[in-house]
Amino acid sequence: RNRGCMEEFFGKHQEEEEVKQEKEASKETNADGDTTLKEDDKAAKANANKFNSHAHPKVEEGSPEWEILAERNHLDLILYDFIKMLYQKQERMINKYALERKQNAVENVEA
Question: What is the dihedral of CA 55, 39, 46, 35, to 10 degrees?
């Protein structure tokens, strides 16, 4: 039910059509009439499964680089802290629900 509501709200059908059009646009036909991916799309597909395809140096918390990044991205850091807090709340709520459900199941078996 939730998935259906989300798809209805966000327009899954329209998204599927856009993806389909992008796939068609990324193909080319060779002299034999065979369809293949363009070179750029081959590289993108190869990197699609990588978390980050570029090497980046690690930045130590508290270093001057860290402070510059934190200053420039302070709203992102606030959002990140809020999301962590929200996930922790959700985890406690889900664990509580699971425990109550388990206890109810045990009570029903004993009854």
Answer: 170
DSSP code of residue 31: T
Tell me the Cα Rg of the chain. 24
User: Please, are residues 57 and 68 in contact by the beta-carbon 8 Å criterion?
Assistant: no
pLDDT tens column, 16-28: 666 666 666 655 5
DSSP state of 1: -
Residue 54 DSSP SS3: coil
Helical H segments across the chain, by residue range: 2-10, 12-25, 39-47, 64-72, 74-110
Give 28-84 pLDDT, tens digit per residue: 555 555 555 555 555 555 555 566 667 778 889 899 998 998 899 999 989 999 999
For residue 18, which phi and psi values (nearest 5 degrees)? -65, -40
Cα–Cα distance measured from residue 94 to residue 100, given in angstroms and rounded to the nearest whole number: 10
